[in-house]
Specification:
Layout lengths: L9 E3 L4 E4 L3 E2 L2 E2 L6 E3 L10 H7 L15 H5 L1 H5 L4 H9 L9 H4 L5 H5 L6 H14 L6 H13 L22 E2 L7 E6 L2 H5 L1 H16 L4 E3 L9 H5 L3 H16 L3 E6 L2 H10 L9 E3 H6 L2 H7 L7 E4 L13 H8 L5 E2 L22 H5 L6 H11 L4 E4 L2 H13 L7 E4 H7 L4
Parallel strand pairs: 6-8, 7-8, 7-9, 9-10, 11-12, 11-13, 13-14
Antiparallel strand pairs: 1-2, 2-5, 3-4
Helix pairs in contact: 10-20, 18-19
Length: 433
């Protein structure tokens, strides 16, 4: 509308608007106390240098694509329990915030849900690692928990800071033979990349031992790297320590290439993402499956082995890095639906719209930091959802998630009501000894 205003008298207000005693627009008298002509507020008054500096980083260019539609906010898991999201970050950048010096830099779990709905393809999965890498290189403040994890991986090859010599100890209690190819590099059909949490964490040990027994029952000729295995490095890369990621990846690739195997099977979605999508950039290309993919393809052999019933109400949590990042939703469900006596139901947020556990993008080692910035852990929010659908068991297929959700079960007061089990543990329970 074109405003043609006839003014008899103007009253200049101290606020951000001008009120007219008399205003006629297109021949219509709109005079009145409610008639306020707002003055424009120009964002040029802000220092947008940090925004431009961020856009200049390789990988972070797409932050400039945001036109603040806010579709990302409704699906951001951090905003669900706090105040976050790409649109909010972009607005702060417009107003002069330096992301490299902000707590916002470390809260993103790179879950990919924002990119799923973004019409302008603002890619936080590239933006955040690029910004974090720059912050680390510039000597900016890094959360202490994350620094400790980086140091442990650099010195010991795992986030826990455990000795590499202890990496294969879990196998002694598996009650089956687990070939250690670092000691005897014989040809195998399957190289199993065990991963840190299966190897070192107490509950991860349970899943690792279950996996060894199931593979043995299936007659799979498999072996592991034993003490020579190192962290896959994916979380370190996403948290901004690209140099550390490259060091870990180079070590693993060298060991992989020295062995004779046909297929690689990995325990965790982050290892799957790294070895499938990132290692080829460094010369390591392999035929790799997440364990749920490998086992679901062997259903004709696996299903007859499961003769014990598992008569419980079960729901399933989709890992972000198996689901949204790599498009695998059906393999875990194929396994779960084949379990005898299972009563399976979905949580309200599932598959493409699944909720993040909080462990991605370095979040696995930032619980203390996140507690200062959100009102509830993502894992706690998810446990409440599992309880809401009447589940007795929360099934997972990521090594990070058993410990995260077991802690959340306790902190939400649901101990004794909900059991957290890796899918491979359920399968193992259903196979006769």
């Amino acid at each position: 509308m074109i405003f043609k205003t006839m003014v008899r008298k103007e009253k200049e207000q101290k606020s951000s608007y001008v009120e007219k005693d008399s205003a006629i627009v297109d021949g219509i008298d709109i005079s009145g106390h409610w008639n306020k002509m707002y003055q424009p507020r120009e964002i040029m008054n802000y220092d947008v240098t940090p925004l431009e500096d961020l856009r200049a980083l390789p990988g972070a260019e797409s932050i400039g694509n945001c036109y603040q539609c806010a579709q990302c906010i409704g699906v951001c898991p951090i905003d669900n329990v706090g105040d976050y999201g790409p649109r909010k970050i972009y607005r702060k950048l417009q107003m002069g915030m330096n992301l490299l010096e902000s707590v916002d830099l470390w809260q993103c779990t790179t879950c990919m849900n924002c990119l799923r709905v973004c019409p302008k393809e603002v890619n936080m999965i590239d933006i955040m690692p690029a910004a974090r890498e720059k912050a680390i290189l510039d000597g900016k403040e890094v959360p202490a928990e994350l620094q400790e994890m980086f140091q442990n991986c650099a010195e010991y090859g795992n986030p826990m800071g455990e000795s590499p010599r202890k990496r294969a100890r879990w196998a002694k209690k598996a009650d089956v033979e687990v070939k250690d190819l670092s000691k005897n590099p014989e040809p195998v059909d399957v190289l199993w990349f065990v991963g840190d949490y299966y190897a070192y964490h107490g509950r991860g040990n349970d899943a690792a031992q279950a996996m060894a027994r199931v593979l043995t029952k299936l007659g799979v000729n498999f072996g592991t790297l034993g003490a020579e295995e190192r962290c896959d490095g994916d979380s370190q890369r996403l948290a901004g320590e690209k140099g550390l990621y490259e060091m870990l990846a180079e070590h693993n690739i060298e060991k992989f290439n020295s062995l004779d195997f046909k297929k690689m099977v990995v325990s965790g979605p982050h290892a799957y993402n790294a070895i499938k999508n990132e290692y080829p950039k460094m010369g390591g290309t392999y035929d790799v499956d997440h364990y749920t993919q490998f086992l679901s393809a062997m259903m004709d052999k696996l299903k007859p082995l499961m003769t014990k019933e598992f008569g419980k109400k079960v729901t399933f949590h989709d890992p972000c890095y198996l689901g949204r990042h790599n498009g695998e939703y059906e393999a875990p469900r194929t396994l779960l639906n084949a379990i005898p006596g299972i009563q399976f139901s979905e949580m309200f947020r599932n598959k493409e719209q699944g909720y993040c556990c909080g462990g991605g993008g370095g979040g696995m080692w930032l619980d203390g930091f996140m507690a200062d910035n959100i009102n509830e852990r993502l894992s706690e929010n998810r446990v409440k959802e599992a309880i809401a659908v009447g589940a007795e068991v929360l099934a997972v297929c990521c090594p990070y998630e058993v410990s995260r959700f077991e802690d959340a079960v306790k902190s939400t007061g649901n101990e004794g009501k909900l059991e957290v089990l890796d899918i491979i543990e359920i399968i193992d329970r259903c196979i006769e000894e």
